[in-house]
Write a structure and sequence with these properties.
Elements lengths: L15 H4 L11 H14 L4 H6 L3 H16 L6 H13 L4 H13 L15 H5 L1 H9 L6 H8 L8 H23 L17 H5 L16 H4 L7 H15 L3 E5 L4 E5 L29 E2 L5 H12 L3 H14 L10 H15 L2 E2 L6 H6 L2 H12 L18 H32 L1
Parallel strand pairs: 3-4
Antiparallel strand pairs: 1-2
Helix pairs in contact: 2-4, 4-15, 5-6, 5-10, 8-10, 9-19, 10-19, 14-15, 14-19, 15-19, 16-18, 16-19
Length: about 425
């Protein structure tokens, strides 16, 4: 299956000529997400809340899971425990207990030192030095400059390599954007285990009690899910563990493996993993013009500059990220079926970039006011810039009439537009450092 067939006619497009030769080795777009989800079910006993919500859009889900798995688990310059600790630091900037808890647990499972979880002050100096760009990228990415990169690459024995820093930057941007999705989707901030928005759970489907979304049905052969070495079915073990967890009323992450069962406490304070908690988003349009120039995509774009740089310094990640950007803008949605679908997607994307100082010279920003109602703009801005302030009261007037899949689609657009914005600023700073 060819990943891309033609160039998009607006800024979300990508350099298809660079990736036309790439072939995804899967039977179909529906089978791959199914296999990924079933694998997650087999290893943990259930799907996490984020995966369940994204399962409304299986084509996008496949791309997201592949990218996240690659960043967190596949070959790369950073050790696994560093990756999860960086994810904790990124999620903490927006007080996202869900992701802080999740990655704290993963940090321990891959051999991380529990002392580091006492707070950023207990982490190695190299990770503490990353705090500044974590703060800047999360809230005011337009402040990202060559000096930030230079300071990390030239600090004696504690310096970062360029390859390590690029992977760290990608991970920070990924997790910052994911916090927007977590809050926008209303994921439970106290427990990463229970399902979120969708009422469907694969565990219920295995028992015949629910119908999964199209394309995500578990296979009929369930021997590995129904049996265990001690003669007790995995479903029974899951049910007993969940009942015991609910009875105690403790906030824990339930990690159920086929061979083992483990509970990891997730009572963590995000404030432990950040400095300067008062530092937050500031209106870009209110800055002093002399200090910060508008980021013009015509001068530095993802397609022509960011993609090639990140792919060269962090092998293959450019293709994975590029696929995510394309998939999210090509998702079908009745919300966008009024004949203005592509224009509305573009308006949402460009509106988010504009809040971060990124401008498209060939775009009429009057379309944003014309296509995006005021209440939806308020929702988008909150989820993008102040995700931890998101509440049901902020939902647009038209939100109630939308199907769950359509709401998820809006939140996916927010996440991917924010991710690209942070990457553009970070990669431009790295480019400036390399040519200085």
């Amino acid at each position: 299956m060819i990943i891309c067939t033609k160039k998009m006619d607006y800024p979300l497009g990508s350099h298809c000529q660079r990736v036309q030769s790439q072939v995804v080795k899967v039977n179909s777009e529906k089978e791959r997400p199914q296999l990924l989800c079933v694998k997650a079910l087999a290893s943990r006993g259930r799907l996490d809340s984020v995966t369940q919500q994204m399962s409304y859009h299986p084509q996008y889900l496949e791309s997201f899971l592949r990218t996240q798995h690659y960043i967190l688990h596949m070959d790369g310059p950073l050790p696994l425990h560093y990756r999860h600790y960086i994810a904790v630091m990124a999620a903490a900037r927006h007080h996202c207990r869900y992701l802080v808890s999740l990655h704290s647990a993963h940090f321990l499972r891959v051999g991380g030192d529990p002392v580091w979880l006492q707070g950023l002050d207990h982490a190695p100096l190299r990770l503490r030095n990353l705090d500044q760009i974590n703060k800047v990228l999360a809230h005011r990415p337009w402040l990202m400059a060559r000096q930030h990169i230079e300071s990390l690459l030239k600090i004696g024995e504690q310096c970062w390599s360029l390859a390590e820093l690029v992977q760290a930057v990608v991970l920070l941007a990924h997790c910052h954007a994911l916090t927007s999705f977590v809050f926008g989707a209303g994921v439970d901030q106290e427990s990463p285990g229970p399902p979120g928005l969708p009422s469907y759970c694969f565990c219920d489907a295995a028992n015949g009690n629910a119908t999964p979304p199209d394309g995500l049905r578990p296979p009929s052969r369930r021997r590995s899910l129904d049996s265990s070495s001690d003669g007790v079915s995995l479903r029974e073990r899951l049910q007993r563990a969940q009942e015991e967890k609910d009875r105690r009323g403790e906030r824990r992450i339930l990690h159920t493996e086929l061979e083992d069962e483990e509970e990891v406490p997730c009572c963590v304070d995000p404030l432990r993993y950040m400095s300067d908690p008062e530092f937050g988003y500031q209106e870009f349009d209110r800055r002093e013009e002399d200090h910060f120039q508008v980021f013009r995509v015509q001068d530095y774009s993802w397609e022509d500059h960011g993609f090639s740089l990140v792919n060269r310094l962090y092998s293959d990640i450019g293709h994975l990220l590029d696929e995510r950007f394309r998939k999210v803008t090509s998702l079908p949605s009745s919300l966008l079926s009024s004949g203005q679908g592509p224009d509305l997607k573009r308006a949402i994307w460009n509106y988010i970039h504009r809040m971060f100082g990124i401008r498209y010279d060939d775009y009429d920003y009057g379309e944003v006011n014309h296509l995006v109602e005021r209440s939806l703009k308020l929702y988008i801005k909150t989820v993008t810039c102040y995700p931890d302030r998101t509440s049901t009261q902020l939902c647009p007037r038209s939100w109630k009439s939308l199907k769950p899949a359509e709401k998820v689609h809006v939140n996916l657009l927010i996440m991917e537009a924010r991710l690209q914005a942070e990457l553009l600023y970070a990669l431009r700073a790295i480019t400036q450092y390399m040519i200085a």
